[in-house]
Design goal:
By secondary structure, the protein is α/β, with parallel strands linked by helices. The protein has helices spanning 14-17, 20-27, 64-75, 95-101, 119-124, 141-152, 200-218, 220-230; strands at 2-7, 32-37, 50-52, 60-62, 82-92, 106-111, 128-131, 185-186, 189-190. A five-stranded parallel sheet has the order 2-1-6-5-7. Strands 3-4 form a two-stranded antiparallel ribbon. Strands 8-9 form a two-stranded antiparallel sheet.
Length: 231
């Protein structure tokens, strides 16, 4: 997979992309990530990429020309499955969407800033808008980093154990059951005996029971959706 990110703050990605699973995937050649400074595509002598909005609205707006120049340049090199804009009013990022996007070959992610982007970019250049939650950040960079991490970990070879991602929360419409490790007893806090029994069937039943209980308690909307689909 190749992911090209358009941003005015490429340095913000240095931490998330140079550690852990993403770093490993890049080093293995599983994923390639390109960071593109939008100012490099500005025709303004001061490399300006924003301007005041028409009708005197508050806040600066990212201009259409630099964004179009950058996307056009990228598309001249390869075809893209999606051109994504990180936006608080986009489609909410959930596991089924992550699963689908992890299967594509090439993505562009545009990080907005200031008051947003010229609406014509959304109308003519963007194919999908994604939000990581119902709140507003200063820019799209943090959201883009979350999106990239959620996709890369699903690509075979990124994780040491490829089956690990299949048992994550939300993959089966449930949150994950509790997990434990050694020591089996700590300050009289004990690991449930069932997990030490060696009875795989009973352990699987316990995990499903715990996942259902936890989903009902912590994600009641998911639990109701699951009940409706199974009825």
């Amino acid at each position: 997979m190749r992911i090209d990110i358009i941003t005015i703050f490429p340095e913000m990605f240095e931490g998330p992309f140079t550690e852990s699973i993403i770093k490993r995937a890049v080093n293995k050649g599983i994923v390639a990530i390109g960071l593109h400074n939008l100012r490099d595509y500005s025709t303004d002598k001061h490399k300006k990429v924003d301007d005041y909005s028409f009708a005197a609205g508050a806040g600066m707006v990212m201009m259409i020309e630099p964004v179009d120049n950058c996307i056009t340049h990228l598309k001249s090199q390869r075809s893209y499955d999606e051109v994504i804009y990180m936006s608080p009013d986009g489609e909410l990022l959930e596991q089924p969407l992550c699963n689908r996007l992890s299967l594509v070959q090439n993505l562009i992610i545009l990080c907005g800033h200031y008051k947003g982007i010229d609406e014509r970019i959304r109308e003519h250049l963007i194919t999908k808008e994604i939000s990581i939650g119902n709140y507003v950040l200063s820019g799209g960079e943090l959201g883009a980093a979350v999106l990239v991490d959620s996709l890369v970990r699903l690509i075979p070879g990124s994780l040491n154990d490829e089956t690990s991602a299949l048992s994550d929360s939300f993959q089966d419409g449930l949150v994950s059951p509790p997990v434990y490790t050694r020591p089996r007893s700590y300050k009289s806090w004990d690991v449930p005996e069932i997990l030490l029994s060696g009875n795989d069937l009973k352990i699987s039943e316990w995990k499903m029971e715990q996942a259902l209980k936890r989903t009902e308690l912590r994600r009641p909307e998911m639990f109701q959706k699951l009940k409706k689909s199974s009825s």
